[in-house]
Protein 1
Amino acid sequence: MQTDFQTSVTLRAPGRLHLGFLDPSASLGRRFGSVGLVIDGFETEVEFGSATADRISAETLEGVAEIERAAAHMHTLRRRSGRHDTLHLRLLRVLPSHAGFGSGTQLALAIGRAFAHWHGLM
């Protein structure tokens, strides 16, 4: 994918499936737990780059639907980290929401990790 950024950070977070509880009766000594599977090639992909003004954009219709959620994540990250550089966050690909693939979690993790990487926090 072509980018206008001179410097950028791109991060991918794969879709996943959770296959239920392993031991709901706690007969094995643990009440909760599940098996999760990564779905190769089915992912959320975000890109951070420098900007003269804050901006969040999306490359797909699914991404457009997630701009508000992405903005909330950015607000939280900035408030908690104290980092307020102007940035352009591009939602290159996002998982379909409310379809059981962990779209909300993967979006939050991708944005958080890319933000931390961009600011040298990791």
Note: Residues 1 and 66 are 20 Å apart (CA to CA).
Protein 2
Amino acid sequence: MSEHRPFEIRDPQFELGPDIPRYWHGGCASLTLFFNGLSIFFPHGERFFVTSVKAHGHVVKDDSLREEVRLFCGQEGVHGREHVLYNRMLVAQGYPAEAMERRVQSLLRRVSRTTTPRMRLAVTASLEHFTALLARRILAHPALLEGAHPTMAALWRWHAAEESEHKSVAFDVYRAAGGYYLERMVVMMSTTVIFLRKVFEHQIRLMWADGILFSLLQWAALARYLLLRRAAWELAR
């Protein structure tokens, strides 16, 4: 099992309304939309995570891990709530966030219909690995949110901090459920392909909605952020 570290369920409430600029990340459209596209995943994604972990509660015998499962579910519940509000803000701004959320929900429903409970737990552990990597980059490099609106920067840093706190919980439950390396490797590979494809799809749909899909300047700005700041490359480490 991974090292157990105490964490807690917090209850921040962010003011996500008309006071938030459309391009809240330093006025850069493509960069703002990159983060907005990630938010689309969370309401249904967090519910999928919680359901997958709770389905294996009966295999968790360690008291410390059992408590971490409770805290994990609590934190993810609050994340989902705040990203529901975030995505409502996107709808108010004219983005097709509801339709995009439905596509995420449909994908997760297909996963639920076609996989075993333990495979769904492996999917959760894989996606939690991605969120933990992103969280580490955000927390270790404050410049990644430099110029962002204070409310949005606070939201993403809070989310990152809590993802770092509970990053090993799904994996520990997966191991307790008898998960093994080959299964985990296959699930991780397929999850990686699907997740990155969806991230790109969200970027395209949001940029299309703003009429900037074919803007070389916007794509160049996003590339500079992801590549020159080493965010994308270091996510893989």
Note: Residues 231-237 have pLDDT under 50 and may be disordered.
